[in-house]
Specification:
The structure holds 2 protein chains of 2 kinds. By secondary structure, chain A is of the alpha/beta class. Chain A has helices spanning 14-25, 43-47, 74-78, 103-107, 146-153, 172-178, 192-207, 225-233, 245-252, 257-260, 265-281, and strands spanning 2-6, 31-35, 50-64, 84-87, 90-93, 113-128, 131-138, 161-165, 183-188, 212-219, 237-242. In chain A, β6 and β7 form a beta hairpin. In chain A, α1 (14-25) packs across α11 (265-281) and α5 packs parallel to α6. By secondary structure, chain B is of the alpha/beta class. Chain B has 2 domains: 2-46 and 124-286, Rossmann fold (3-Layer(aba) Sandwich); 57-114, Alpha-Beta Plaits (2-Layer Sandwich), CATH 3.30.70. Helix content of chain B is 39%, strand content 27%. Chain B has 11 helices and 11 strands. In chain B, a hairpin with a 2-residue loop joins β4 and β5. In chain B, α1 crosses α11 (268-286). The longest helix of chain B has 19 residues, at 140-158. Chain B is elongated, with a radius of gyration of 22 Å. The chains are: A alpha/beta, B alpha/beta.
Amino acid sequence: MIISVASGKGGTGKTLVATSLAFSLKSMQTVQLLDCDVEEPNDHIFLKPVIAQKEAVCIPVPEIDEGKCSHCGLCAEACAYNAIAVVPDRVMIFPELCHGCGACSYLCPEKAISEEGRETGVVEWGDAGGIDFVQGRINVGEAMAPPAIRQVRERANADGVVIVDVPPGTSCPVVEAIKGSDFCLLVTEPTPFGFNDLILAVETVRELGIPLGVVLNRAGGEYKKVEEYCRKENIPILLTIPLDTRIARLYSRGVTMAEGMPETRELFVRLWSEIRKILDEGTGSLKR
Amino acid sequence: MKELVVLSGKGGTGKTSIVGSLAALAGDKILADCDVDAADLHLLLEPVVRQKHQFWSGQVAVIDQEKCTQCGLCPELCHFEAIKDFRVDPVSCEGCGFCYRICPSEAITMEENLSGHWFISDTKYGPLVHARLGIAQENSGKLVALVRQQAREMAEKQGAAYIISDGPPGIGCPVISSLSGASLALLVTEPTLSGIHDLERVLGVCRHFGVPALVCINKYDINRENSRQIEDYCLEQKVEVASRIPFDNIVTEAMVKGLPVVEYNDGPVSRQIKRLWQNIAGRLARN
């Protein structure tokens, strides 16, 4: 079973929920944690994995054999991303624009284009105190997160519980990380920013047809619009975490809540059984 | 005209709250919200929309079921696994057009994709260029580039002194698009191990693109030792720490009221943000 932990707004507590959930379940069953926030992966700070293996993230970019090339210009015309320019005697490649679709090499009438892997990041895995840990990290200066996210997701072993830490936002990296999950937890906070971005995140997850529930973090203030919205939209609030400086202080030192406050582990075990119940009954499905 | 972009690497460190306050403090500027997939700046600035434009970007393949002979070539060649049962999943399709070019039955067409909207609005602090990427859409980097280009054109036309942009979290495509060619980046961090880790990466991106940076430590008192570590790191990297803002729930209170914190209260947080703006303005003048 794959549970993704997402939020529209950053800094609402995705990492806290993903790592605490993994930490709380690991004594009960096989748990895998996939850190798909490949731009800024942070789960390793809390779970301290021993990295056993890694592989490069490569995207196929064209390489031209100038000896064979007739400068016909078909590859440049076919490229939707303007990653190839053909001038009378030369072909120029802009690798950072290439999405690796493969059209140019297939279409080249002279068979002058081969696909060479360009390294844009790394995927690493190992054991984190009984949690099967996988993370991706793109290199500084690289623009494209989805290929690294896809490569992390390919390592999912859905026999046990797979927890996916999703990057913030609502665009392509988020979709890539959430796609194919059985359930999505949306972590939010009771503020106007948290509320605004929760609505966007709910629309994204519904677009993908994945059942969802909310975790309300830093709860307890006057602002009640998140709860009102969830009630109206029939979205279950599966866990409420109070605003508590102890949690923030632990977090600042790289200690997740379930580790530093052992009494909270049962909250995450209960969260897990709530999710299972929803999936068994099919009630949490908020598909349109 | 000088362009300031506010970034953080890690989300939720306080970028938008700070930009809202800088909007109230800085004179003669154009504001831009470059966080196009979870834009929040409008919640503090109450924009009145003057112009709304469609953002058409990229294409999506569509298979004509009547012409399709189910030969199997397109699902075999698609590098994005976007074709299943001879239908295109528009979320996975990256619009490369490979399938359209190789279909022997000419059953595939490429359709233009409405990926979002962008707006020019008036706020009581000056004009705001902002956008909304469609749900689960791609090309946020291109929409960010469009927002910045509009902001620049307006700033040049009006002879504005500054553009102040609220950037997205992370270090990938929309961040690069917000950053490249800007005069100065303000990096808002927090004294958590995650905040420090993410600051190092976003500072790396600033270096990569040759944009000078200033650091602001927000909620510096939630872990003073980590704050010291950030200061040591910045000293070593020769990056100025322009402000240390204390933790105060007044920031959330102001947000709930829909106001920049400097307009809501004159406490320690507001005083630090005012000092931050003086530092930024001084640095921009020297650059």
